[in-house]
Amino acid sequence: MSEEAAATTLVLGLGNVLCGDDGLGVVALERLRRRFDVPSEVSLVDGGTLGLALLPTIEAARSVWILDAVDADAPPGTLVALEGESVEPALRERLSPHQIGVADLLDALHWRDTWPARVRVLGLVPQGIQLGIGLSAPVAAQLDRLVEATCQELRAAGHALAPRRFELDGALDPDRGDRFARAVGV
Q1: Among the four 54, 71, 80, 176, which has the fewest Cβ within 10 Å?
Q2: Closest CA relative to residue 184, chosen from 143, 150, 127
Q3: Does domain 3-184 have CATH number 2.60.40.1890?
């Protein structure tokens, strides 16, 4: 059985790192992966802009934490946490092109009656989602807060996350080099 299939909790980073703050969910997920050891029942998945391709991954999980840019009436960089009935409207807002795929994904989960027992969204209010690599200053300044909030919630749900003694080296992909990692804020 694959590690992903064995996981009961999914932490899913969403967004496009080529569209400024839209990529903050993916960048936060990579920081979490590099800085913390997570137990085998927690799967960290870079969902990027995959949309419906994520259906089997989400269906396999009982609990899902989605890290993403969240449109809210608050200053850029504000931490937003949503659960229950407020999740779907927030993810259906077409803040960026990848969220069209997220809306389709939500519909498929309902049609197949496979909505996870718990779905939680943690994110930051973006300053801009225009084409460009890197996070805005207000979002970059709060990214560690988002990662720590995610860790706190996972611990509160009974998962033993431990800080790594040494942060993992490298970028999102070792072949991309550390310049790319710095550009996207990891």
Answers
A1: 176
A2: 143
A3: no
The pair of three-digit structure tokens given for residue 136, joined into one six-digit string: 């805005």
Amino acid at position 184, single letter? V
DSSP string spanning the chain? --HHHH-SEEEEEES-TTBGGGGHHHHHHHHHHHHEE--TTEEEEEEET-GGGGHHHHHT-SEEEEEEE---SS-TT-EEEEEGGGHHHHHHS-SSTHHHHHHHHHHHHHHTT---SEEEEEEE--S--SSBSS--HHHHHHHHHHHHHHHHHHHHTT---EE-SSPPPS-SSGGG-HHHHHHHT-
Q: Please report, for the chain, the start and end positions of each structural domain, with discontinuous segments joined by +.
A: 3-184
Its pTM stands at: 0.83
Q: What is the pLDDT of residue 94?
A: 53
30-44, 89-103, 159-173: segment of lowest average pLDDT: 89-103
Q: Among positive and negative, which fits the CA dihedral 133, 183, 98, 53?
A: positive
